[in-house]
């Protein structure tokens, strides 16, 4: 019988070691894949139900609408929506032409379809948005001016088509109410800055005044939102263009299952946020274009005491394939964020403009409180920003006694050509630092200051470079 070579045991040991190393690497990779937060996305998408409508059309012209841009078509819209709703739903169709109207109130199973070549031109007379409705304004519930398009506690609603919704807001109407000369305000005229207006609303909310008694309609100078579904389920906004808004453009509040697809939002007035899901669950924002006077997308959940009273977070929000031009921030959390925000996934977005101030922006303070957590961005292409590429700050505007939390933020695969004044800015408190920040494959060029951290911990970086230099911030 032939003798075994003396070196065989060493060979076996080497094989065993290599096999164990391979198994360990495979196992670690499998664990990493299992723990990848992006694995949650398919399950969230599965929960988001697009509304389905009966195959019947209700042209507003059948109900008396005239496409001359001068005739008040408010009653025609109301009658068409009422008939559609009562008969089981369908499409309320806006044919080609320009239609003047006041507030439009959607009802269940109604799809407001704005045809290609059609424009809904909204009146700039404040009285056309009364009587007051139950709404939320800068994160506080009140009885206020009706949003231009409004729905309260309705299911299966939509705004679709290739037409335009024109709020007609400018420096001669709505915008001067902000109280800023740049937007047409003239000294000595009323504005939201008067003591008995915005400040009074905030004071009533802090004192716990019942919502029904917070009357801020006629004479309040609190501008209405453009589109606000409130406590609705299965909402679709698709294909349309929104321009010239009095204030926030799309503002679903306390809604579940919201889809916003292929919408163009162009409005550069004061507080002209593009899309602000507020205390919403299961939201998909995709294929949209933002050119706005404030944040492009700002995820919110109520302000201060009123936000804590309602205490409903925004969660399970997916943003993909969007383009951000002008705006204070591309993807934003805050600042009305007292109910918290969690599980936000943004990917394959492009952001760039000389007037775009930030790419990822998280803003809160000790008056808001609340927890912002599990925010994930990947495959983001940024051309130019003015201020910061990434900012997470607890030092925004107000102060109070409610310490906020910001944690679990990850950015993967981001390239930035001009990173603004500061590449990465993190600002927390000693007792509540900004924490667990992961940056993977991030390249930022042209930032005046690479990064600045105040009270931040548990920062992890992998393949990060700023201004051409590798940055290792691992803690």
Descriptive keywords:
475 residues; mainly beta; Pectate Lyase C-like; 22-stranded mixed sheet; six-stranded parallel sheet; globular; disordered N terminus; hydrolase; Pectin_lyase_fold/virulence; Glycoside hydrolase family 28 protein
Could you outline the blueprint of secondary structure elements for this entry?
Elements: H1 8-35, H2 41-47, E1 57-59, E2 68-72, H3 74-86, E3 90-94, E4 97-101, E5 104-105, E6 110-114, E7 118-122, E8 133-137, E9 140-144, E10 149-152, E11 155-161, E12 164-166, H4 198-206, E13 215-216, E14 227-230, E15 233-238, E16 241-243, E17 256-261, E18 264-267, E19 281-286, E20 289-292, E21 297-299, H5 304-310, E22 314-320, E23 323-324, E24 331-333, E25 341-351, E26 358-363, E27 371-384, E28 388-393, E29 405-418, E30 420-427, E31 434-444, E32 447-454, E33 456-466, E34 469-470
Parallel strand pairs: 1-3, 2-4, 3-6, 4-7, 5-10, 6-11, 7-12, 9-13, 10-14, 11-15, 12-16, 15-17, 16-18, 17-19, 18-20, 19-22, 20-23, 21-24, 22-25, 23-25, 24-26, 25-27, 26-28, 27-29, 28-30, 29-31, 30-32, 31-33
Antiparallel strand pairs: 8-9, 33-34
Signal peptide: 1-29
GO molecular function, one term: polygalacturonase activity
Protein name: Glycoside hydrolase family 28 protein
């Amino acid at each position: 019988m032939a003798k075994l070579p003396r070196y065989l045991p060493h060979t076996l040991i080497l094989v065993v070691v290599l096999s164990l190393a391979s198994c360990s690497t495979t196992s670690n990779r499998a664990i990493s894949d299992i723990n990848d937060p992006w694995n949650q996305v398919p399950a969230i998408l599965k929960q988001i139900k697009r509304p389905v409508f009966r195959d019947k059309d209700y042209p507003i012209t059948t109900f008396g609408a005239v496409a001359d841009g001068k005739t008040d078509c408010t009653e025609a819209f109301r009658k068409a929506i009422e008939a559609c709703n009562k008969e089981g739903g369908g499409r309320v169709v806006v044919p080609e032409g320009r239609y003047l109207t006041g507030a439009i109130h959607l009802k269940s199973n109604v799809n407001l379809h704005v045809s290609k070549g059609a424009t809904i031109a909204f009146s700039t007379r404040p009285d056309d948005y009364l009587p007051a409705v139950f709404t939320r304004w800068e994160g506080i519930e009140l009885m206020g001016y009706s949003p231009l398009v409004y729905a309260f506690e309705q299911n299966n609603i939509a705004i679709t088509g290739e037409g335009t919704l024109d709020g007609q807001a400018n420096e001669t109407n709505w915008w001067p109410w902000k109280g800023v000369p740049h937007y047409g305000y003239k000294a000595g005229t009323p504005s939201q800055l008067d003591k008995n207006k915005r400040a009074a609303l905030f004071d009533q909310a802090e004192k716990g005044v019942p919502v029904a008694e917070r009357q801020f309609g006629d004479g309040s100078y609190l501008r209405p939102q453009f589109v606000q579904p409130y406590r609705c389920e299965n909402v679709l906004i698709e294909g349309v263009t929104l321009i010239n808004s009095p204030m926030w453009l799309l503002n679903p509040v306390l809604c579940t299952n919201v889809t916003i697809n292929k919408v163009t939002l162009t409005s550069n007035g004061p507080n002209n946020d593009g899309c602000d899901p507020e205390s919403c669950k299961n939201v998909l924002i995709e294929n949209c274009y933002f050119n706005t006077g404030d944040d492009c997308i700002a995820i919110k959940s109520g302000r201060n005491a009123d936000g804590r009273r309602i205490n409903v977070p925004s969660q399970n929000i997916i943003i993909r394939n969007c383009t951000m031009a002008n705006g204070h921030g591309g993807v934003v959390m805050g600042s009305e964020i007292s109910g918290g925000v969690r599980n936000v996934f943004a990917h394959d977005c492009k952001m760039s403009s000389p007037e775009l101030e930030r790419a990822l922006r998280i803003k809160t303070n000790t008056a808001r409180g609340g927890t912002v957590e599990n925010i994930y961005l990947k495959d983001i292409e940024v051309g130019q920003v003015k201020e910061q590429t990434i900012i997470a700050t607890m030092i925004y505007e107000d102060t109070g006694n409610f310490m906020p939390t910001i944690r679990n933020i990850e950015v993967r695969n981001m390239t930035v050509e001009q990173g603004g004044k500061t590449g990465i800015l993190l600002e927390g408190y000693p007792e509540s630092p900004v924490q667990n920040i992961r940056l993977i494959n991030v390249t930022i060029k042209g930032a005046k200051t690479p990064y600045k951290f105040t009270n931040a911990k548990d920062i992890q970086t992998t393949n990060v470079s700023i201004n051409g230099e590798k940055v290792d911030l691992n803690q």
